[in-house]
Amino acid sequence: MPDFSHALTMLGQTDTGLLRGHNEDAIFLDARDGLAVLADGMGGYNAGEVASALAVQSVVAFLRSAEAQHTGKAAEPPELINRLVAAVEHANLAVFAAASSNPAYRGMGTTLVVALWRESGLFVAHVGDSRLYRLRGETLNQITHDHSFLQEQIDLGLITEAEAEMSGHRNLITRAVGIGQNVEVEVHQHAVAVGDLYMLCSDGLSDDVPVATVVDVLTAMRTNLPMAAAYLIQEANNAGGKDNISVVLADIKRQLPGDGWRDMLPGWLHDFLHKDGQEPSA
Question: What is the pTM of this model?
Fold first, then answer.
């Protein structure tokens, strides 16, 4: 498998917040593997913490095992999509089995968002309302679509996004990993451009930090990812810190490996062809 660390810089931070007794978020990131995972657990005392950690560990183990079994030609997009779905389904069964076998964990579950960068682009799988954003230039787009009661109301035209922000039902999700034997996984593929900055986050960040603030922070601090993450977490705590807060940042510094003739370009020509974050045509 190609090493993505020369093209991808990653940083992750998680914080308990100001009101919770412990942190039920879990994160994983590995620039070399081109993989980031974030989960926000729920359940009784400590159960959410168990669910999120188990889900993240299960996804990472499954994907690494799948990569190890296919050491030849790079996987094609349909195979990568199927692999991500299978990884989340594997995590779902692991969490569900743990919840079923231990009364203290009964009913636990977790959101989950998985970002996998490969030669053919970014592959995303998610369940729940943890999010993945992309900053391209100065435009921030939410790549994931919340699986939540409020998002369903917005989609049906029953409430506006502004009304949703004021609602008392912001934490009601309609899908979660581990609450049943089956899980519905949303998965999709996206083109990647040099200069993109990606952010995975739990709702402790997205609920309390305005999008405009996120754009300002990521734009101003994109060359210092630790500072950007710390500043965003502090902004969430300044807003009350009502929930655990987690963020993973991934900056695309160079063309991802495995792209044929583009890999052999000298640095100056590579940068010229990718100026303004645009991909050159094949």
Answer: 0.87
